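Supplementary Note 3. Input sequence used for the single-chain structure prediction.
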Amino acid sequence: MKASDYEREKARVMNGVDINSEKAEMEENKRSVGSCVNDFTVVKELGRGSYGVVYRVLSNISKKEYVMKKINIKHMDQKHQKEAIKEANILRRVKHENIIRYYTSFVEHECLYIIMEYADGGDLQQVN
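The predicted structure, written as discrete structure tokens, is reproduced below.
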């Protein structure tokens, strides 16, 4: 193992991230939730933004509901593409009971898809 690889792994372990268990969890999520657009059925569009659309979807594998964030990266400049991928990587690492859970992400048809937990209570704008 190179010194830089060792330092990177050490930093992740020190921050409570076990690389092997993280990779295993990601692979399990892809198998049990889905890993391509065809693994999901769109139930309803939840919202639109400047770069994409958010859908409530049903996994054809697990039969559970999730949120699919579809970000069209085809027309983005390289900086914005990197930011979109960085968002997926940040979501993947965040694990907290009060934060919507990330399951998986993939690129297909020149779009980045991020699959997350569906919270049926609405969004923060709807909370009184």
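The CA atoms of residues 42 and 95 lie 26 Å apart. The helical segments are 3-14, 19-32, 78-93.
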